[in-house]
Design brief:
membrane; about 60% helix; two-stranded antiparallel ribbon; elongated; about 300 residues
């Protein structure tokens, strides 16, 4: 709760007039407790899980000709029953794990120094903090993801996430409850190391989920603004990981590609891109007699 009773008191304490955004924040948060504001994260996660994937689901179910040419695995399609089953399981984990975790996380949020007061951070401050959060999460997620692909980790936990070899947006948070908890650690590590404002924290949570939904979309759109983000993996990079499945030792990164490149876990993917990328173009152009969509070494995993 803000320690100011009026806008005038807030401006006197800060020593300047409040910006428009700060006035809005004051109007909304002045009489609300920090715990209540922290719990807003649950609402933002629910909206991200439920609404952001809907256009992708529509494209998946409607088989739109102008859109299908961008589908990474065009011969693998999910039914409406599969989509509903995926979303239902995501909501079950949300209600049993994600929501309760957010309700009890307030002491940790307060301890690391995430603030709710005035003044609000500048745009540059928000941008730089979000950049740190993405880099830190990406590096931590890479190594945890690799560990989950060991025999025990995959069979006991991670195989749930790989049930969808041709993922859709709803499949981004589709995982074993233990994986949801484990991968929450690198997601919170950035805000813990470089704490900022609650608004920055909310933006981080939402943007990270939107990014995960995009990489699990099953579509590679040439007009996506993420094409201009350096070292960004995108849907095609992560789709390859799902396509290979349990035996995959490639493309572990969640956001960027530098870890896979540095540690050599993208060799199969780069081989496919360099030597066999033409297969996908052939399929999209109607030449379905030249082989499969993805290829590893000299053996086709699947053929069209």
């Amino acid at each position: 709760m803000l320690p100011y009773g009026t806008l005038h008191e807030a401006e006197m304490a800060i020593g300047r007039d409040l910006t428009f955004a700060e006035r809005l924040w004051f109007s909304y948060s002045a009489q609300k407790s920090d715990y209540y504001l922290c719990c807003h994260t649950i609402l933002f996660l629910f909206l991200a899980f439920s609404l952001v994937p809907l256009p992708l689901v529509f494209m998946e179910l409607k088989n739109l000709k102008n859109i299908d040419k961008y589908k990474i695995q065009p011969k693998l399609r999910l039914s409406s029953a599969d989509v509903f089953r995926c979303y239902k399981e995501v909501m079950r984990i949300f209600l049993l794990v994600v929501g309760p975790l957010q309700l009890v996380s307030y002491p940790t949020v307060k301890f690391v120094g995430i603030r709710t007061g005035l003044p609000l951070p500048s745009g540059w401050e928000i941008f730089l903090q979000l950049l740190v959060y993405f880099v830190v999460e990406d590096y931590g997620n890479y190594w945890i993801h690799r560990l989950l692909h060991c025999k025990w980790g995959y069979e006991k936990i991670h195989r749930v996430h790989h049930e969808f070899t041709a993922p859709i947006g709803f499949a981004a948070p589709y995982a074993h409850w233990a994986e949801v908890l484990i991968l929450g650690i690198p997601s919170f590590l950035g805000p813990a190391l470089v704490p900022g404002h609650m608004i920055t924290f909310w933006l981080w949570i939402v943007l990270r989920q939107v990014e995960a939904i995009e990489t699990h979309s099953g579509y590679e759109f040439p007009w996506s603004p993420t094409k201009y983000v350096p070292f960004y993996g995108g849907a095609e990079h992560h789709d390859y990981h799902h396509y290979v499945g349990g035996q995959s030792q490639s493309n572990f990164a969640s956001v960027f590609t530098y870890c896979d490149y540095i540690y050599g876990t993208d060799k199969g993917y780069r081989y496919q891109k360099e030597h066999l990328g033409k297969l996908k173009e052939n399929w999209r152009s109607g030449d379905k007699q030249n082989g499969g969509l993805y290829h590893i070494s000299t053996q086709y995993i699947k053929s069209e």
